[in-house]
Amino acid sequence: MSSSTATDKEIARKARKAGIASFIGTTIEWYDFYIYGTAAALVFGKVFFSDELSGGVATLLAFVTLWAGFLARPLGGIVFGHLGDRIGRKNTLVITLVMMGIATVGIGLLPTYAQIGMWAPILLVLLRVLQGVAVGGEWGGAVLIASENAPKGKGILYSAFAQQGSPAGNLLSTMAFFFLAALPTPQFMMWGWRIPFLLSGVLVVIGMVIRLKLEESDAMKAVLARNKTVKLPIKEVLRKHWVLVLLGAGALPLAQVTYFKNTFALSWATSELGYERGTFLAIIAIALVVQFIVQPFGAVLVSKIDMRKAMLLMIVPELFLMPAMFFAIRTETFAIAAIGMCLATIPHSMFYGAIAGILARAFPANIRYSGLSLAYQLCSLIVGGGTPVLAQWLLNSSGDVTGVAIAAACYAAVSLVCTLALLKRTGYDPKAPSVAEQSDADELALEQANEAAAQSGTSRIHA
Length: 463
Description:
This is MHS family MFS transporter. The chain has 463 residues and is mainly alpha-helical. Helix content is 82%, strand content 0%. It contains 20 helices and no strands. The chain has helices spanning 3-47, 55-87, 89-108, 113-116, 119-147, 155-180, 185-192, 194-212, 218-225, 233-240, 242-251, 258-271, 277-304, 307-315, 318-330, 334-360, 368-384, 386-398, 402-426, 435-456. The longest helix has 45 residues, at 3-47. It is globular, with a radius of gyration of 23 Å. The chain starts with a helix and ends in a 7-residue tail after the last helix. The mean pLDDT is 85.
């Protein structure tokens, strides 16, 4: 066996290991994050707020607490982006997993409004903020540990491992509540909803065992070996790459439409339409299975053809399918609602499978964690947590879902424009290095040439 073949096999083995570890870790993190959204739609308005409030107002306030996690996500992105760019990706991923587990189990143990009054929603918000900080630091590191360990030219494909954690975690969350929905309402409201939160403690232990065995990414090893870390990565990102951050954030609203489906639609369908909890959770679960299956094909498509064409193929259908989903749900027919949700899921899930790898290509290695995290969490701050709040407000204001459907189409339109603008700056060819990757390669080649010249006694080569 040649040394080249052995090396290729070793690279492939390490890439698979990093991808699988990234997938399992993000599945646990997103499970914790998503069970909050499901509980906010079904329980929190009744459990953590005064029963003197109307149902619509209590639900709206529950969705505001959901938003608190999104407000905290940029802080997590900044803090852990800084650490990830300074000391490595692996250590930050261990810390964020522990933080998420503590916050989630804490919510499962939290007393109700009837027991401690206003302290209940206050403590709920604080724990949700801790969740937000954790997932804000998690996402960028998980994407990079997979994409940076990938074989050459396959970074976008391997970043999809981390992205698969979102539908997997969401599906686990939905199924947990689906089985608990069979409980009589008094038992479900009293203690049944707490079980998914307490189970997080077990999942975190599993995730820790896996992550502690994870290796640092090769790109970060190279940065550390060459002493090329940046003292304040966030400052460097904002000074030199702020346009990329804004375009990245603008590209991502389509990734947030899941909160139209799995949070707002769940509340709307079970409180104002004729769906039982278990029935609509089954519809969501079917759509999540579809998402898990089709999502990686977005990364495959982007890796095979001109990325502009791939994005048009994925985003344009969502301009019509997501609005149509709401009217399918309004029929109150299981089959029509399920088909409508599944069709709306396909475009944005494929987009989600590809966009992480595209964003990772946009930034240099020594500030990549900070740049990637800031773009994603900026969108989450403005759009993600605000989505169910906006949808519920539109519904409360008009009494009709049409405004919500139009808002969903607008998300797709913004993503399309900003994604195309981002690709114009980073490159369209998935097989060629991006502008940032080529700059890193040129800098490394120059340093190696200078070292070789110094060792041979010739004059130093200058840039």
